[in-house]
Amino acid sequence: xxxxxxxxxxxxxxxxxxxxxxxxxxxxxxxxxTTVSLSKWDTVEPDYTFVGLENFRKLLVGAGTSARxxxxxxxxxxxxTLLFLAACVGFGLLLAILLDQKVKGEGIFxxxxxxxxxxxxxxxxxxxxxxxxxxxxxxLRGVNALLHxxxxxxxxxxxxxxxxxxxxxxxxxIPVIIAAAWQLTGYTMxxxxxGLRSVPEELREAARVxxxxxxxxxxxxxxPMLQPITLSALIMLGHVSLKIFxxxxxxxxxxxxxxxxxxxxxxxxxxxxGNHYSQGAAISIIMLLTVAVVVLPYLIFTLRREVEL
Amino acid sequence: MTRRxxxxxxxxxxxxxxxxILFLVPVYVLVASSLKTFVExxxxxxxxxxxxxxxxxxxxxxxxxxxxxxxxGLGPNIMNSIYLAVPATVISSLLGSLNGYVLSxxxxxxxxxxxxxxxxxxxxxxxxxxxxxxxxxxxxxxxGTLWGLILVHVVYGIPITTLIFRNYYAEVPTDxxxxxxxxxxxxxxxxxxxxxxxxxxxxxxxxxxxxxxxxNEFLFAVTILQKPGLQPITVALRNLAGSQIKEWNMxxxxxxxxAVPTLLIYVLMGRFFIRGLLAGSxxx
Lengths: 309, 284
Fold this sequence. Notes:
The complex is a heterodimer of chains A (309) and B (284).
Chain A: H1 2-37, H2 54-60, H3 65-99, H4 106-114, H5 121-131, H6 142-149, E1 165-166, E2 169-170, H7 173-197, H8 201-209, H9 214-225, H10 227-242, H11 246-251, H12 263-273, H13 277-308
Antiparallel strand pairs in A: 1-2
Chain B: H1 7-34, H2 38-42, H3 57-64, E1 65-66, E2 71-72, H4 75-105, H5 111-120, H6 127-139, H7 146-170, H8 174-182, H9 187-198, H10 200-216, H11 219-224, H12 233-241, H13 248-268, H14 270-279
Antiparallel strand pairs in B: 1-2
Helix pairs in contact in B: 1-13, 3-13, 4-7, 4-10, 5-7, 7-10, 8-9, 10-13, 10-14, 12-13, 13-14
């Protein structure tokens, strides 16, 4: 039995480098960032003087400019996540069901819907910035120019530069959500398609024998079976959306009056351009907490179920 | 089920084709704008029209830059992305393979705790480790260097590569391993002689996934690499797009150049790409 114990040790030593790296770079650094978020560090030079929750207070309560910006960011994240998830799940499911109808050229359609997943958010941001650039009254650009050309000029608006808001919802977010959904709808489609392909044909056959219509089969038999996939999709896309940065930073930036600002942009600008390190750390810890609330239960649930199996 | 003029089926195709056209609009914009001259791309009355002539010169200036206008070319940045993505992909794939092997076949005490703790690392918003990261890289002399960024991608690639390989090796029958053990092979011997030779499909999935992600990554690159000459393509592209006078034809040509490598991989090896994509959703 001595060699078995020896091999257990070798097994542990083989993963040890990764364990150490993750322990330092993930958990050690999170602890370090937490320390920064509780400190006074507000210039290029580190200053770890403890100030308690002061940085969080300035972001969450009070009437300062930081709180004003951060509140807008939280609302923007909320609406962005809500609409982005709805679009990805809705269109992803629709496309998957359409592709599941034994259509000709399925491979080509699938390739087209999924290719945005292979390119960078930066490229997406650059192209959609061009598409939704409003131009000026006399020099219309992007979609506005297209609308004008087909005689729908009165439909043109400021897109991501528009500062209108409906309650706390900034309409300028809509073009950014469209770009994000364009990039990630294929992902939900692929997940749903994999799910649809694993529905046994006998099940459909049985429902048909019972006199269910094709639409009825989807509504009452297949779509309910896809619920676990919907949950995975919501978690995976939800955490992307809660920490989104590249796309918005490239496409619009924070926008006039922060209409398209998100916590990721605020954190980046205040930390690395404004040297307000402790404030940046506080923002990032709040981002981490929101992501953890979404991801942790899911992670624990999936891994526990796996152990039971 | 093969009725010929079924209005339902015509409707399905119409929907599929309409969506396909919508999905391809940005591609049209990229290709059409990048083939225009600077004068033509400025002409708003022809904004959405195809280029009047195929002006390939734009790609030359996107790659080499226009020195007299002070515009840097993206060629060196493409090279930087290659120098970054290739070693980072290779190292993190090998680490993932070792971890996946041990965590699926040699569960030591505590492995059940370590794996989820590792996995959580792929979900964190990287903003929450960015300040210590820049400080640490500077302290160990890797601040502002490509090697620093390679290290970062290796480390934060560990969770996903480990996950994919762990699930991949879970399918390898334990009988194979037991047989090798009876033949006297140890843990490393089994990896070398049994597991590694079976790993090629797993490596293809992981390599494609890692390469694509590292090539497309922006946040780490923009925070760690300040020198324009060292930046990978995503950062350089965003700087070009953010410059005051926009040479849209050049920006679009640059965006195309940035997108082509990962798009090619996707088109040629889509099956493996999708497997990596679905593996990321933590299906046990």
